[in-house]
Design brief:
This protein has helices at about 1-15, 20-25, 30-65, 70-85, 90, 95-175, 185-205, 210-215, 230-235, 255-270, 350-355, 375-385, 440-455, 470-480, 500-510, 525-535, 545-590; strands at about 225-230, 245, 250-255, 280-285, 330-340, 390-395, 400-410, 435, 460-465, 485, 490, 500, 515-520, 540. It is an alpha/beta fold and about 600 residues long.
């Protein structure tokens, strides 16, 4: 401060006051008086300039909030102020009164800014606490919603399985009264047949819940597997009055996404089509490679197609190392057609884009207020994840939804997807011991009904009414069991949930050699992988009709029995070889005299 004051004073004498300096330079008293006056003035100016630079820093520190580092900054500012007051030459030229006034004022300002920093800190802490509590509550709500959704999904699947089972038992009992004792004709029972098929279709949709969640979050990864087109058409048409045309061909597809796209398209065809005669047709056919769709306005452009988009190719990879497939690629065209409703607006490119973008205006007054076309939005969303481009357009009095995918043929025999393996169904041998455990009374009744009919000379055992049945089930199966069928989730009142996979491990630990099956409503791909890792031989979803399950169970049991016989023969052959080797060694060690 003193150095800067002397520099300012020299500059003032030499450049700012030249005539005054020339007049009084010979008078020592006048020069001393002028020097003292200018020195005090410039000292005050330098002192004010330092304070003016110090206070903005204090303000910034106070805005940061009260913390350990900000408190240290406040103390350092106070030290700078006091040090400047004690060291500067101005202090020795001022009275004690001025010092006592300036220092308290400075510390008063410091206290004010320190209080402001504390208030800022408390406000931010309150805000951060509120944000943390909100995020924590949101995470808990999401987790609770996920668990509730999982429970609801599981309960819904079991409820639909029980309802479908009740209907199936009734229909099966009526089918064996066609000798005139039945009070109901086939036409009377047709609605119940469709109802059971719709319930099974609903269970299949619940099975893909996790895939739908990943799809909505944009994290879905396409997974290819062998799919029989004829059986895919039958699943989608179950419970619906529609025409299906599909070749009996095995190809690699993402069945989950294809089912979601086509199921929504078929539902919209019935919902928004002709009120009395929708004439819904579902076609799957092999077609030549489709051309590029251009937006040049030419006649070759399909109405409703997205402009300038190529029909995308579905990349093909082998999902099972044990599965053999040819390298031949085919283009499969999926098409859903229905008669249009004359009261609905004409479907054009603008209409389709409005639906995809979620615009649901009712300006024309022709659209139902209860319809938001969300099914079509889901179809286009799933098609995007499948990397295909669907087309929705109207041709005269028919509405057409179609898309084309490229896939590889699956020439290998897949028991789950190839109907040829089910053409010749073997029979169950006599006097089998079948053990079933399920916590649902309706499931036990359904299984008992069909097993008693399919295996009249066998022994059928049902478990699952009490939690003690789990221990009894394992004991009885290991003692005298040929087929074991387990539900995955066994819930008993007042006790913990037992898992079927845990019981499977106990059976395998007890060296059970029979056929082990899981029959559960939870049979998503990740669930099936978990079942197979536990040692299960075959998996049946509760959405599968019991007649189809019995056919597959016969095939599975025949294959398992054949495998067990081959293993037993191999073990016997190895034992015989060991016996002959020991005989030769003994003869070599003790030759005959």
């Amino acid at each position: 401060l003193g150095v800067s004051t002397d520099a300012w004073l020299t500059a003032a004498n030499d450049s700012r006051l030249p005539r005054v300096h020339a007049l009084i330079q010979d008078d020592p008293d006048a020069m001393k008086e002028l020097y003292e006056y200018l020195r005090g003035m410039f000292t005050r100016l330098s002192w004010v300039s330092q304070i003016s630079t110090l206070f903005p820093e204090i303000i910034l520190i106070s805005i940061i909030g009260f913390q350990r580092i900000t408190l240290m900054c406040f103390l350092s500012c106070a030290g700078v102020f006091i040090g400047g007051a004690l060291v500067s030459n101005y202090v020795w030229d001022t009275s004690v009164r001025e010092i006592l006034v300036s220092i308290p004022l400075f510390f008063l300002g410091m206290i004010i800014f320190l209080g402001f920093s504390v208030i800022t800190m408390l406000w931010r802490r309150k805000r951060f606490t509120a944000e943390y509590l909100y995020e924590t509550a949101l995470a808990k709500a999401v987790e609770a919603s996920r668990k509730a959704d999982s429970v609801l999904n599981h309960t819904l699947k079991n409820t639909m399985a029980d309802a479908a089972g009740q209907i199936e038992v009734f229909l099966d009992s009526q089918s064996h009264k066609r000798d005139g004792n039945s009070r109901y004709s086939t036409e009377h029972l047709q609605p119940l047949t469709q109802c059971a098929a719709m319930l099974r279709r609903g269970m299949r949709a619940c099975r893909h819940r996790q895939a739908y969640l990943m799809l909505m979050s944009g994290k879905y990864t396409s997974s290819l597997g062998p799919v029989n087109l004829e059986q895919l058409g039958e699943k989608l048409a179950a419970g619906r009055a529609m025409t299906v045309s599909a070749p009996s061909m095995n190809v690699y597809l993402d069945e989950t996404l294809c089912t979601l796209i086509l199921d929504n398209a078929i539902s919209n065809a019935f919902m928004h089509g002709h009120t009395t005669n929708p004439d819904v047709c579902f076609t799957m056919a092999e077609v030549p490679s489709p051309p590029i769709v251009y937006s040049d306005g030419s006649d070759s452009m399909l109405p409703g197609a997205m402009p300038g988009v190529l029909y995308s190719q579905l990349s093909v990879v082998d999902t099972d190392q044990n599965t053999t497939s040819t390298s031949s690629q085919v283009w499969i065209k999926f098409q859903v057609t229905n008669r249009c409703n004359p009261r609905k607006p004409i479907i054009n490119e603008t209409f389709v884009l409005r639906i995809i973008n979620g615009i649901n205006d009712d300006a024309d007054g022709q659209r139902s207020a209860l319809s938001d076309q969300i099914g079509i939005q889901h179809s286009f969303m799933a098609a995007k994840a499948l990397n295909v481009t669907p087309c929705l357009y109207q041709d005269r009095d028919h509405v057409i939804f179609e898309f084309t995918v490229q896939a590889n043929r699956a020439e290998a025999v897949f028991p789950e997807t190839n109907r040829s393996s089910m053409d010749v169904v073997p029979k169950f041998p006599d006097q089998l011991h079948v053990h079933c455990i399920d916590d649902s009374a309706m499931a036990r009744r359904l299984l008992n009904h069909y097993f008693c009919r399919e295996l009249p000379g066998s022994f059928i055992h049902m478990y699952g009414e009490h939690k003690e049945d789990c221990e009894i089930f394992v004991k009885e199966v290991t003692q005298c069991g040929d087929i074991a069928i387990l539900d995955q989730h066994l819930d008993f009142p007042g006790s913990q949930c037992y898992l079927g996979t845990d019981l499977v491990r106990q059976l395998l630990d007890a060296n059970f050699q029979g056929l082990i099956c899981i029959r559960s409503a939870n049979n998503a791909p990740e669930d099936r992988e978990k079942y197979l890792r536990s040692g299960v031989h075959c998996i049946f979803g509760k959405e599968l009709a019991m007649k189809e399950m019995m056919k597959e169970l016969k095939v599975k049991y025949a294959a398992h029995s054949r495998s067990q016989r081959q293993r037993s023969t191999s073990s016997t052959t190895i034992a015989d070889v060991h016996t002959v080797a020991e005989t030769v060694i003994q003869a070599w060690d003790h030759p005959a005299d």
